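Hi there. Long-time user, first ticket. I'm pasting a complex I've been working with (about 632 residues overall). I'd like to know whether the download I got is complete or cut off, because the file seemed smaller than I expected. Thanks.
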Amino acid sequence: MATAPTSREIGVLGAGWTYASVSDRIADIVLTQPMGRGWWIAFAVTLVGVLCFFGATAWLFAQGVGIWGVNIPVAWGFAIGNFVWWIGIGHAGTFISAILLLLRQRWRTSINRFAEAMTLFAVAIAGIFPILHLGRPWFFYWLVPYPNVMNVWPQWRSPLLWDFFAIGTYILVSLMFWYVGLIPDLATLRDRAGSAPALRVKQHIYGLLALGWRGEARHWARYESAYLLLAGLATPLVVSVHTIVSFDFAIGNTPGYHSTIFPPYFVAGALFSGFAMVLSLAIPLRHFFHLESFITQRHLANAAKVLIATGWLIAYGYAAEIFTAYYSGDRYEIHVVEDRWFGAYAPVYWAMLVCNVLIPQLLWLRRARHSVWLLFAISLIINAGMWMERFLIVVSSLHSDFLPSAWGMFYPTIWDWIHLLSSVALFVWLFLLFVRFLPTISISEMRQLVRTSAKEGA
Amino acid sequence: MSGGLLIEFATADQLLEAARHARANGFATAEAYSPFPVEGLADALGFHRNRVALVTALGGVLGGLSTYALIWYSAVLDYPINVGGRPLHSWPSFIPPTFEVTILGAALAAVIGMLAMNGLPRLRHPLFDMPEFDLASRNRFFLFLPADDPAYDADAARAWLQTLSPLRITEQGR
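Hi, the file is complete. Here it is re-exported in full:
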């Protein structure tokens, strides 16, 4: 009688795992394993942050955008910077799940699920900021084209409208991609919960969400087609989303915004910050849930290599901005560049270069790529650096554009900081709920990996 | 469903082999259940008409065309705004929303089409009551030979099934 295969060490998966043991290991995190004290502390701390976010938002709605530091000439402050930053973070999730799937990269398997969750939460938070930033946020639905009693239609030639379609599509497609990937795992949770009477409620909830999935061969065939097609659709989508976000800037004629480098530069920056966030989440996740044989050193090192590559792309973007300014001879463009070097926001510029260009060069060293906590530190530094980049793009061009008499400074208020920091708390809080209630690693794909690894070893 | 034989295996290769046997023995409606997609399994059962890609393409075309039509109608016919004499049908700026909704339409069609053609959601299914069938989503592989298949003959089937060393064979009552 044939026995069930056992995995061999293949870099992206440890040895000695079987279909049953990978299934139980991942499912039990959700079903039976109690969350440790660390989870509860993190949950409590971030819950305070979430309440701050809602409190600050209520105050914002009551008082108006004047509680932030925005004014003329800098009418776009933290809110738009945060929006671009969060959207960018979302991009790595789609990149990992869609593009690496199409390229048949095996190291995507155990990190795609939580990277997709990261995408979903980041995009949802990003979508809140432009609405908060509106002077009359209760009218945001005017972006939707529908026949209305005002007898007007939206302005189709505006990048802000394109943005609405891009973000809306992105969040819906990410949600579908994530959910379709989850269906077989929800069925696993349903069936595993079914054997224990204490888990009856969970069995019902997961059972409803699994839609009655049974894993029939024809179902799998259609499922795989749909999943691959979604990956193929998400690939141009992810490129288009940050391109359209960059149009919010590049279509305007403000010096420092009006540049054809913006779309690729934004997409590269998005992948860079997104992969940094993947590492920031993966390292604590594997540590606290002891998933070292699923999320291996190989995964972390590969993500670090992507960081080097995308880091150089954005370094090229920084250089191209400077070159274009001087090559154009346009005094306003040159002024923006020199203002970034020596002006009021110069410390942010130089700190950004240190965080995004200088420090990531450590990743050339094999030892740095294999040192987990150094990687974690670098990923946090890159996240901070990318936020500074978004801040500079938004603020430094607006604060001194054409006429010196129209120049002005932007100073963030306490509410700006509360909204930024509490949005991070909201993100972490959502992620904590996700690891509590859904399998953080795709179980069915791990079973497939067990089969391939056993075959390769044989 | 009117009953049949449910055969349990330990490995994907055994199930694949059993599916080929079922097909060779004339079964047209045999079903195979696995905890992950097994390459070639649907083919072995005689499944060749996968229309998910077609539905997806139609969804994309529908999304794109309807969006462009909506934009054209609203910006050119229903609500024309003359901005310095620029053309009303300024198609380059109509491309981004059209592109986005093309993707959205295709993705919605892929997901809804896949579920609909699979007959899901269907929360109750007789097989869920079979012993050990909950392992189909964990580590076991099942072949189901439905009794209403013209090729169905329980005793003959048991004979060729025994050569494939199954873990267990369960007969489901009618």
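A couple of notes from our side: Chain A touches chain B through 71 residues (CB under 8 Å). The radius of gyration of chain A is 23 Å.
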